């Protein structure tokens, strides 16, 4: 199981790295430039307010899209907190940044749970969800690995998943992949550069 997770994540990073090389070695970004890839160009999900959402809804903003689940004990809250720090660090320009949390556990992450979770990090953040088939299809489209573990005797389970943040530029194009090497400083610098155009 761990080997499978590693191989899928390694493949996704290899694809991302190929996208970076295609754009040239002098990329001004600290994150991986994936603007040449053909996958991950859109999504069709519902937000925690019941509104249908796609990339087009956020034109004019930089979008930080992260897949996770609200019962995640470590990666998800850390990543969401970092995304919120980036928005706050940018000051007034932060109003042009949209944080999105896509649940990979729609069975437990109801709209009410998502609303409470994402807004605890930043009031502007939105939780997105789809049914299990839509979630699986979207994860495949984004080369994103996730796998629900077997439930324990009390019905509790974890979901193994990746930790990348997918970043759309203000024109609505998938532009960057922020991997595990990211820091709030590098994230904020890359987002600010995208906002400047």
Protein described:
With 197 residues, the protein is of the alpha+beta class. The protein has 5 helices and 10 strands, in the order αββββαβαβαββββα. It has helices spanning 2-22, 75-89, 111-121, 132-141, 184-196; strands spanning 32-33, 45-47, 52-53, 62-68, 97-103, 126-129, 146-148, 159-161, 165-168, 174-178. Strands 1-10-9-4-5-6-2-3 form an 8-stranded mixed sheet, sandwiched between helices. The protein has a two-stranded antiparallel ribbon with strand order 7-8. Helix 2 packs across helix 5. The N and C termini lie far apart (41 Å). Mean pLDDT is 86; it is low at 1-24.
List the helices and strands and how they pair.
Elements lengths: L1 H21 L9 E2 L11 E3 L4 E2 L8 E7 L6 H15 L7 E7 L7 H11 L4 E4 L2 H10 L4 E3 L10 E3 L3 E4 L5 E5 L5 H13 L1
Parallel strand pairs: 4-5, 5-6
Antiparallel strand pairs: 1-10, 2-3, 2-6, 4-9, 7-8, 9-10
Helix pairs in contact: 2-5
The number of E-state strands comes to 10
Poorly predicted sequence stretches spanning 5 or more consecutive residues: 1-24
Instruction: Tell me the overall shape.
Output: globular
Strand order of the largest sheet: 1-10-9-4-5-6-2-3
Work out the helicity level.
25-40%
Summarize the biggest pleated sheet.
Answer: 8 strands, mixed
Rounded to an integer in angstroms, the radius of gyration calculated over CA atoms is 16 Å
Average pLDDT score = 86
Give the H and E element order.
Answer: HEEEEHEHEHEEEEH
**SS summary, helix count:** 5
């Amino acid at each position: 199981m761990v080997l499978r997770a590693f191989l899928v994540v390694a493949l996704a990073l290899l694809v991302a790295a190929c996208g970076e090389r295609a754009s040239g070695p002098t990329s001004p970004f600290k994150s991986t430039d994936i603007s040449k890839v053909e996958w991950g160009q859109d999504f069709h999900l519902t937000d925690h307010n019941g509104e249908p959402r796609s990339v087009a809804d956020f034109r004019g903003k930089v979008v930080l899209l992260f897949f996770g689940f609200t019962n995640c004990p470590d990666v998800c809250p850390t990543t969401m907190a970092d995304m919120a720090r980036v928005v706050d660090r940018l000051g007034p320009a932060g109003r042009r940044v949209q944080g999105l949390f896509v649940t990979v556990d729609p069975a437990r992450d109801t709209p009410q749970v998502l609303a409470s979770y994402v807004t605890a990090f930043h009031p502007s953040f939105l939780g997105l969800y789809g049914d299990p088939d839509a979630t699986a299809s979207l994860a495949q489209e984004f080369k994103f690995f996730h796998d629900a573990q077997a439930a324990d005797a009390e019905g509790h389970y974890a979901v193994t998943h990746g930790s990348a943040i997918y970043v759309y530029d203000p024109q609505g194009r998938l532009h960057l992949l922020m991997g595990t090497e990211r820091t709030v400083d590098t994230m904020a610098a890359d987002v600010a550069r995208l906002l400047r155009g």
